[in-house]
Amino acid sequence: MATTYNQETNNSWKVNLDVFSGPLDLLLHLINELEIDIYDIPITEITTQYLAYLEQSNMLALDVGGEYLVMAATLMAIKSQLLVPRNESLADEEEMWYEGEDPREHLMELLLEYRKFKLVAQDLQEREEARSAFITKEESDVTKYQEHIPLKADEISLEDLRTAFTRLLNERALQDPPPTIIERKQVSVSDKMTEIATKLREADSPMTFSYLIEGVLRTELVASFLAILELIKTQTIKANQSDVYGEITLRYIQKKVKKEEVQ
């Protein structure tokens, strides 16, 4: 985030801290400006620069910028811990200030966490700005363009097939064993169309929807369902349902050969 400056009548320059969202934002800005390694922060240098920013922006008043002053105190405390000489005469409690853990470590963790969320926020803002350039068309009611053909007593609708498929998926979820890592096999809808059409053509009687996809891998269920829909659409197979919520049966339709095709 860029720093802004205001020129006073006495030609002095003041740093405007309004552009920063807090002391961590200012610290991160200083680290980037000074090209400092965030994993090895030179506390003396960063503290000097930080206090200079506060002084230039008149933030060293107790009634203004309290959180910035708290961070200033934290930086000076870390600086003093690093400057304490290490000798055997120090009391145990004083020794714990710097031995075993770098006093800068907590500050580094805060800065890394803040930088992560700041980058995410920037990414979301960029996406929002990019999305604002698009105009979304409202949904159109296309039902009036759909041809309504009454179903016969034993015929089924697409919604019936969807309901049956959802019910089978739920049953599979209860019956499937714990997942195991296996090699994924790519199955196309056209392959499934050929497989299902062949099964129904060679069958002596219609097959139920559940029986037809019994044993099919879970990863192939969607391809199988789409294949059945396409076969119904092309009038290669026919789906029937004897009663509401009853079992759906599928049978192969023997296409009639036209006379000109025989000659």
Question: What features would you highlight for this structure?
Answer:
disordered C terminus, Arc Repressor Mutant, subunit A, 263 residues
What percent strand? 5-15%
Report the sheet with the most strands, covering strand number, pairing sense and barrel closure. Answer: 3 strands, antiparallel
Principal-axes geometry comes out as elongated
Strand order of the biggest β-sheet: 3-5-4
> How many helices does DSSP assign?
10
Percent of residues in helical segments?
40-55%
Main location: cytoplasm
Subunit structure: Component of a cohesin-like complex composed of ScpA, ScpB and the Smc homodimer, in which ScpA and ScpB bind to the head domain of Smc. The presence of the three proteins is required for the association of the complex with DNA.
Function: Participates in chromosomal partition during cell division. May act via the formation of a condensin-like complex containing Smc and ScpB that pull DNA away from mid-cell into both cell halves.
Keywords: Cell cycle, Cell division, Chromosome partition, Cytoplasm
